[in-house]
Amino acid sequence: MSKDIIHHAAAAGYVGAADNYVRGRPDYPPEIADWLRNALAITSDAIILDLGAGTGKFTPLLVATGARVIAVEPVEQMRNKLAHALPQVEALAGTAEAIPLPDASVDAVVCAQAFHWFATKTALAEIYRVLKPGGKLGLVWNLRDARIGWVAKLDQIVNRLEADTPRYYTGAWRKAFPFQGFGPLHEQHFSQGHTGTPEDVILNRVRSTSFVAALAPEERTRIDEQIYALIAAEPSLNGKEVVTVPYETAAFFTVKEMQ
Question: Which of 34, 63, 74, 225 is the most buried (most CB within 10 A)?
C-alpha cells in the first residue's frame, strides 16, 4: 500500500507508534455495545467492515456481536498487530478510497477513531458502494474531556503541534455530509474514564498521536518533559500511581437509503 495515499502524519507517525497506540488509547464505554446492536442493528448473521481499523482497538466490540468482521487498514505495522491479536478477523490492506471488497457486500461499516482521516466525497462513495441497501455507516470517536482544567492544558500542549493533521474536534469531517444516498447523521454521546498509570493513559496516549509520533526524537523528548511538568504541577496527578483521564465518546450513524 503506497504511503502517498495516506496522510503524511499517519504514514510517518503510526508506523512507529503502534505499541504506544495499544498501550495509550482508551477502551470504549459499555454503552457502545448497545449502540452497535440497536443503532447499527448489528446481528450475528451480519458482515461488518471495520474501516481504518488500526491495531484493532475497537474490533473486539464488533467480534463480540457474533458478526463476521473484516478489517481494512493501510498501515502495515498496525494491521499486523490486529491480525496477531485477532486471528479470527480477516485483516486486509486497503484504504477508504479503495476498499478491497465487492459491491453491496457488507451490512455495516464502522470507522472508530478514523473517519477524520478520509472524510471526503470519494471515500463516502466507496463506503456507499460496499454497503448493502439499508446498511449503516457508524462513526465513533473517543475524546478527552477538555472541560476539566488539566485536560485542557494537556490539549494545549498537543494541539499546537497538529499542523494540517485532520482531527475530530475541528469539525472539518462534517463537510463530507450531506451525501446523496445516505440519510441524516444521528448522534449520541457517552462518558467514561480511562484509568491506569500516568505513563500509559497520559504519556503513551500523547505519544500515540500521529503528528507527535512523527516528530524528531529530540522534539518528542521535549513534549514528554512538558507533560511531566504538567503532571507534577497538578495536585490530582502528582505522585499518583493510578490516574483517570475523563473521556467523552461521540457516536454517529447514517443509513444507505434503499434503492
Answer: 74
